[in-house]
TrEMBL record:
One MF term in the entry's GO annotations: DNA binding
Family according to the record: Belongs to the bacterial histone-like protein family.
PANTHER family according to UniProt: DNA-BINDING PROTEIN HU, DNA-BINDING PROTEIN HU-BETA
Protein name as it appears in the record: HU family DNA-binding protein
Keywords, comma-separated and alphabetical: DNA condensation, DNA-binding
Amino acid sequence: MNKSELIDAMAASAGITKAAAKLALESFLSNVEGTLQKGGRVSLVGFGSWSVSERAAREGRNPQTGKTIKIAAKNVVKFKAGAELEGAVNK
């Protein structure tokens, strides 16, 4: 399912217009992004939670040449599925 299909599904199941569903989805996504940028955590009980984790700098290898390269440190987004979501997927 892509973003436009999700908007269509949200509009149909909630009985709202596609424009309202798009606005709601974009608001949700921007709020999640803003919270993660500030180093916060977003948790939806039963669905899952998003958090930011720091990945340390490390050395890697170029697979073509075999030379050692330096990989810079960066922040990564992690998602952990909630119990209800895992249960629904594993029925």
